[in-house]
Amino acid sequence: NAGVMQNPRHLVRRRGQEARLRCSPMKGHSHVYWYRQLPEEGLKFMVYLQKENIIDESGMPKERFSAEFPKEGPSILRIQQVVRGDSAAYFCASSPRNGANVLTFGAGSRLTVL
Amino acid sequence: SQQGEEDPQALSIQEGENATMNCSYKTSINNLQWYRQNSGRGLVHLILIRSNEREKHSGRLRVTLDTSKKSSSLLITASRAADTASYFCATDAGNQFYFGTGTSLTVIP
């Protein structure tokens, strides 16, 4: 019973390129959350999705960032035209339902923008 | 922002001592949780306390919650070197889970 799977674990991009981060939730979980963590800081909420629906994207930057969770396949966090300030660890977490209280986290994807 | 804040930011203790971390938050909550993060890894859930509970235990962990002061504390008793990690509180207020800035705990063997 695999946990939350994130890939790639490490991603290096040059400024202006696109970054795609993938997250497969834990089996049986239909709710996905994305967080960003800068070095030596806490986690900043970005977006909360259910299958085919964005429930809350209040933490997402208005430009260049998007997220999806299709009916089939993993959730994708997409960052277009990356800038150095996008360098961070991006964590995905899942839960079986809203109000389930406990999040199961993936190991994170570390994005470095050169 | 509803984000909590942990205090202290960093804590260094000798193995066998107790470690206490505090968390303050800003708005009403449904529950409060504590998570642990080892360096370079994802967060792992430790314990959850509901808004109508005042204290909860799990092994060497003891959590208290004071909703009137909007604060919580995490006590780790008889610390071990393996407890070295960052500890975060998280509050659940609807669709989002808000995480604090974390306490970095170092347990010296």
Description:
The complex is a heterodimer of chains A (114) and B (109). Chain A is mostly beta strands. Helices cover 0% and strands 49% of the residues of chain A. Chain A has strands spanning 5-7, 10-13, 19-24, 31-37, 43-50, 53-56, 65-68, 75-79, 88-95, 104-105, 109-113. In chain A, the strands form two sheets. In chain A, strands 2, 4, 5, 6, 9, 10 and 11 form a seven-stranded mixed beta sheet that branches. Chain A starts with a strand and ends with a strand. The model of chain A has no long low-confidence stretch (mean pLDDT 92). Chain B has 109 residues and is mainly beta. Chain B is built from no helices and eleven strands. Chain B has strands spanning 5-7, 10-14, 19-24, 31-37, 43-50, 55-58, 61-66, 71-76, 85-92, 97-99, 103-108. In chain B, strands 2, 4, 5, 9, 10 and 11 form a six-stranded mixed beta sheet that branches. Chain B has a five-stranded antiparallel beta sheet with strand order 1-3-8-7-6, with no helix packed on it. In chain B, a hairpin with a 2-residue loop joins β6 (55-58) and β7 (61-66). Chain B is globular. Chain B starts with a strand and ends with a strand. The interface between A and B is medium-sized, with 25 and 23 residues.
Low-pLDDT ranges of chain B? none
| Shape field of chain A | globular
What Rg of chain B is obtained from the alpha carbons, in whole angstroms? Answer: 13 Å
What is the helical fraction of chain A, as a range of percent?
under 10%
In DSSP terms (H or I, runs of 4 or more residues), the helix count of chain A works out at 0
Helix content of chain B: under 10%
Classification by helices and strands of chain B = mainly beta
SSE string of chain A: EEEEEEEEEEE
Overall pLDDT confidence of chain A: 92
C-alpha-based Rg of chain A, rounded = 13 Å
Determine the most extensive contact between two protein chains.
Answer: A-B, 25 and 23 residues
The count of β-strands of chain A is 11
